[in-house]
Amino acid sequence: MSKDIVQIFDTTLRDGEQVPGCKLDREQKLVIAERLDSLGVNIIEAGFPVSSPGDFQSVEAIAKLVKNATVCGLTRAVKNDIEVAAEALKHAKIPRIHTGIGTSDSHIKHKFNSNRDAIIERAVAAVSYAKTFVEDVEFYAEDAGRTDNEFLARVCEAVVKAGATVLNIPDTTGYCLPDEYGAKIKYLRENVKGIDKATLSCHCHNDLGLATANSIAGVINGARQIECTINGIGERAGNTSLEEVVMIMRQHPGLNLDTTINSKLLYDTSLMVSRKMGMMVQPNKAIVGANAFAHSSGIHQDGVIKNRETYEIIDPADVGVTESSIVLTARSGRAALAYRAKIVGYELTKTQLDQVYQEFLKYADVKKEVKDDDIHQIIETSKIDLQSIS
Ligand code: KIV
Ligand code: ZN
């Protein structure tokens, strides 16, 4: 049975760029956009054109440059925002306007001092106006995660009727639990008239560390687009991480879901975004962190040397990492030492290994990590007969 394709909507250049202190200039944005296009993302959210002349120019330049992906611009449910976004996107091969408004009681009361009916009217007016410029209009119900499902369904039904092609259900504050978010998507699928005319989209924030889990719960329950960023960067604790959702779907064939992402470019893309944004990736970050394929305990190293799959669920080459690394520390065993010693040019006999291992442990107790250079030194200073090393 062929797998359902989940659209990957990358918002590194919009929600991702909202990280404090991580401004990108236009050239940097263009390089990243080109890479996202080669990576195989389906939609690139290039920016929020009305927010500044610089953002407008970046969105316009990205729209001209991108060859395959849809290029999208964010707006509020405000006429001028929509006009400015349409102008910035006019050279895009496939343009999309992403418009919307807050739908939770908190947003309706505190942000808009309004009421539910008036919010629906504004939502419909925004989508209808955006439709006069482009065919592809995505609607976001901001703070949908905390919006009452019945009202959310009313909003969705009204905007689908007005022509929305995609319904974005953001968990703006990262509050939902996976079951709750999944149930919300299911409820909308079952209760919004005309839902078959639109794609449901997950846009999850990571305030409780649940962005990835929530997005996956969303697609299991029928959403077919995930909004995400490289390295999971974004407002506050960040957005859903692109590399995580892509690899979850790929590593779990039972989900019967896949994406068009060329996963071999993931590691390199992560490095590129991290360097351009000056934002380090935490070493234990899933898929792309420096330690994602590093093994340091003796038991694990022994297993991985015998067969990589004992402790790795992803072949590092599938995400563009050249090889698993065996990191030598005081917790490493003889198997790991022999393995690395061989890589740097020493095939040790069992007796030699026993001797070198004692020297190695003394060294490793002082140093956090024993590097290849250190292995030369340890072997050279061990009291073993170097001549007999084959
Ligand atoms: O988190 C959010 O609700 C958003 C919307 C503007 C789509 O980023
Ligand atoms: Zn967001």
Helix and strand string, N-terminal first?
EEHEHEHEHHEHEHEHEHEHEHEHHH
**Spatial gap, N to C terminus:** 53 Å
Q: So what's the CATH class of the largest domain?
A: Alpha Beta
Strand arrangement, major sheet: 2-3-4-5-6-7-8-9
Rg calculated over all Cα atoms: 25 Å
What's the CATH topology name of the largest domain? TIM Barrel
Got a strand count? 12
Instruction: Count every helix, treating DSSP H or I runs of 4 or more residues as helices.
Output: 14
Oligomer: single chain
Bound molecules: 3-methyl-2-oxobutanoic acid, zinc ion
Largest sheet, strands/sense/barrel: 8 strands, parallel, barrel
* Mean pLDDT over the full residue set: 95
Percent in helix: 40-55%
Structural class: alpha/beta
Query: Which shape, going by the Cα principal axes?
Result: elongated
The count of domains is 2
Q: Uncertain spans, ≥5 residues at pLDDT below 50?
A: none
Strand % is 5-15%
Organism: Maribacter litoralis
Domain Pyruvate carboxyltransferase: 6-267
Pfam families: HCS_D2 (PF22617), HMGL-like (PF00682)
Protein name: 2-isopropylmalate synthase
